[in-house]
Amino acid sequence: xxxxxxxxxxxxxxxxxxxxxxxxxxxxxxxxxxxxxxxRNEQSEDTFIxxxxxxxxxxxxxxxxxxxxxxxVLQCTNKFVITQSWLNRAGKGRSHHTHKHxxxxxxxxxxxxxxxxxxxxxxxxxxxxxxxxxxxxxxxxNNESFLFPAKSGELLLFPSSMRHGVLPNKYDEQRxxxxxxxxxxxxxGDVSRLTSLPFDRLI
Length: 203
Known about the structure:
alpha+beta; globular; 7-stranded antiparallel sheet
């Protein structure tokens, strides 16, 4: 008897990396930063937070993992660089609206402080379906969202086009995360495929 086979096409990668070094000094510095209300949550006034020397070791860790994600997972030959970076803070009742990161290719979220009770990041499936059918149970093929409970010190890397958000915080503790965007260094595309994007012509 020939068995049916189900093949998972077009998987979306989520890479989880643990920062196992002590970062108490960096966390103390992060907690002292100034924030402004970004709507449902608060964002740091400094939107290039990784340019600060106080986060040099953290940035080096991010760059190492970003390079691994690009070359090993996505098999990219381009060099990726971090562009903008900022802190997010969500106290009791605060949340983060569903969104994606524009003008970025790979995005990252690092958690200097969180725990299992604080709301996890939630990823959403992009689909254009207008019909909803009844299902008996959810799996990777029919679910619309996925909750990922990250731990303190963990870095998540994912395509910037992946929609994500955070549900309201029900606790008095602050949920803190650091987000960043990326872009490729140098030209994009291929001349023979008529997709060349030479950046020196755009300046």
